[in-house]
Automatic annotation (TrEMBL), chain A:
UniProt superkingdom: Bacteria
GO cellular component, one term: NADH dehydrogenase complex
HAMAP family with a match to the protein in the record: NDH1_NuoK
GO biological process: ATP synthesis coupled electron transport
Main location: membrane
This protein's record includes keyword NAD: yes
Entry similarity comment: Belongs to the complex I subunit 4L family.
Localization terms from the record: Cell membrane; Membrane
Catalytic activity as recorded in UniProt: a quinone + NADH + 5 H(+)(in) = a quinol + NAD(+) + 4 H(+)(out)
Listed NCBIfam families: PRK05715.1-2, PRK05715.1-3, PRK05715.1-5
Function: NDH-1 shuttles electrons from NADH, via FMN and iron-sulfur (Fe-S) centers, to quinones in the respiratory chain. The immediate electron acceptor for the enzyme in this species is believed to be a menaquinone. Couples the redox reaction to proton translocation (for every two electrons transferred, four hydrogen ions are translocated across the cytoplasmic membrane), and thus conserves the redox energy in a proton gradient.
GO molecular function annotations of the record: NADH dehydrogenase (quinone) (non-electrogenic) activity; quinone binding
Name of the molecule in the record: NADH-quinone oxidoreductase subunit K
TrEMBL record, chain B:
GO MF annotation, one: quinone binding
Biased composition (Low complexity): 529-542
Membrane topology value: Multi-pass membrane protein
Transmembrane segments: 14-37, 44-66, 86-106, 142-159, 165-183, 195-219, 239-261, 282-302, 314-335, 342-361, 373-393, 456-479, 491-511, 566-585
This protein's name: NADH-quinone oxidoreductase subunit N
Principal place of residence: membrane
GO biological process: ATP synthesis coupled electron transport
EC assignment: 7.1.1.-
Subunit structure comment from the entry: NDH-1 is composed of 14 different subunits. Subunits NuoA, H, J, K, L, M, N constitute the membrane sector of the complex.
Source species: Oerskovia douganii
Localization terms from the record: Cell membrane; Endomembrane system; Membrane
Substrates-to-products reaction catalysed: a quinone + NADH + 5 H(+)(in) = a quinol + NAD(+) + 4 H(+)(out)
Amino acid sequence: MELTNYLVLAAILFAIGATTVLLRRNAIIVFMGIELMLNATNLTFVTFARMHGDLHGQVIAFFVMVVAAAEVVVGLAIIVAIFRTRRSASVDDVNLLKN
Amino acid sequence: MTPAAAFVAPTIEWAYLVPVIVVLVAGVVGVLVEAFVPDRARRAVQLVLALGALAGALTSIVLLWPDVLERNGVRVLGGALVVDPFGLAVQGIVVVLALLATLVVADRTSTKQDAFAPTGAAVPGSAYEDLARRRGLEQTEVYPLVLFAVGGMMIFPATGDLLTMFVALEVLSLPLYVLTALARRRRLLSQEASFKYFLLGAFASAIFIFGVALVYGFAGSVQLAEVRGALLGGTGLDGMTSLVLLGLVMVLTGLLFKVGAAPFHSWTPDVYQGAPTPITGFMAACTKAAAFGALLRVLYVVGQALPPDLQEKLVVALWVVAILTMVVGTVIGVVQTDMKRLLAYSSIAHAGFLIVALVGFGELSGFGVRALLFYLLAYGLATIGAFAVVTLVRERAPQPVVVPAEADLATVGAGAGAGTSGTAASAGSDVPDAGAVLGEATHLSEWAGLGRRSPWLAGAFALFLLSMAGIPLTAGFIAKFTAFQSAVAVGAWPLALIGVLASAVAVFFYVRIIVLMFFTPTPTPTPTPQAAGGPGTAPDGASSTGGGTSPVAALTSRVTVVRSEGFTTVAIAICVIGVILLGVLPSSVLDLAFEAAKFRP
């Protein structure tokens, strides 16, 4: 199978993730969109690593996973803190800071 | 199988890693201090550790400087850290500003309460939070978090490797997301700010790393030097130079988000307003310095090597961003009524002026870099000083406290619980008696007449504002002058012209505050019937909260200036001296910045 197919798939996944972030209202779903974007990035890295015959890309994918995990820790903590206060995780309800 | 003897240990030039290591190790030790030191001694230990680490890092940077200048930069760990004059200079600026910001963070003022929630985990308005407050708990994890963020900020501009840059971006961002959520007062706003910062920040870093993936696809490496080599030598993927342009644009998007440039600025006002004020000063000054350092390195190392037609496209994009940022920052800044929001828009405008200094990245002269370094220092000093002043100007509870129909946060929830103004939301548990000192008086009207009551404080604030406006004899003037000069030198005079016009508009809103402080009488506090609160007025309450304090609160609460414990006074004094010195005798610093305009790709 052509390697470029994987790149196209990664681009589509990234676009779906970005659309999710921009359109969905639930913070958890938005967050999943970001994770999808990061995983699409991993696929891109691994595919390019294969194309170049270079291992760096595969190692970078691990770094991205670790960073994504760290982001989950902080992100979920913030979302939970908001949820405990307001009983809602919708990004639309978070609107005190408006001018 | 390779025999173990064949393994060659990499040589690491540890000496050049010292500034970063000192800060990060102090952060780790700070976490251990949280676990093992009894809580009475914790704050003092953390404070000594944080200030000591930053001072140590600054010392080692100063000691490394001649050597780095002589060797014209050292690549440590295979280019993961590039300690060249430019990188070291940005590190120095970050550490100096972080030191000042830490002083402001440490100050508990005469109220004996710092700016942070007693426990960040407590639900705002809950009995548990009340208990923690009465016990006098303190969230001393703030100091290690600041140190981790500073560590990330020091690696960020001094790395020659896009992967390390991504990791540094996260290391500096994650602590900032947490710190943003930790305000002692107006906690709903604070958590909300953190939430927005996190979601948008994570989105931006996902775009950044995808850009890195595309650049990797072109060059087969994430090392900036090798990407440059692939571009110049034509060894990249065939016919795929547009891939690197797309990747580069995505990387720059991630970086421009961090500096708060339009159209990626929308988080800035909200986050600057909601975050605890000392942290706002810290991130406004230090994040901007670090992110501009990284932006400049990417542009100078990779952007410069692009083929001319692609480079032209990149320059056009930068022009658009610069103009948009300056216009948005100044025009929307004019109509702000909240002090922290106003300073946030001013910081957006400054990001625009800084990008003006960047557009000449195609030329090899050091003027743009010199302008950028000087600007970062001048802007950082004025910003930290201004936010430090904001921490001291507080509201005082109105004499007869009419407790508003106390909204139960848990049941009324997001709608009306949020609707009782931010002050009232925190006031619910925060104000036991009349005359107590509350949160910061951020509404502009509350600053009226401040110059008559606290002439020194208001004078310092006026100086910082004048510097931001770019009035001669302050640091801001020289900074703007060099920035626009470097743009004119590369033929970008329309940008410089727009910059000057934007500065002129900005002068209006800075001077308006100065007039307000010195020439407007203090409004006499007239106790009016408490009107805030109650689900019926929720929409009004919510919208006026965004602007700071509701008009009702502005009338019934008196503004007071709390005394600093000494830390903030020192920080403000250093900022004042720095702003004046850089404005009157800028030549030595400018020479230093010019020397620092050397890269090692």
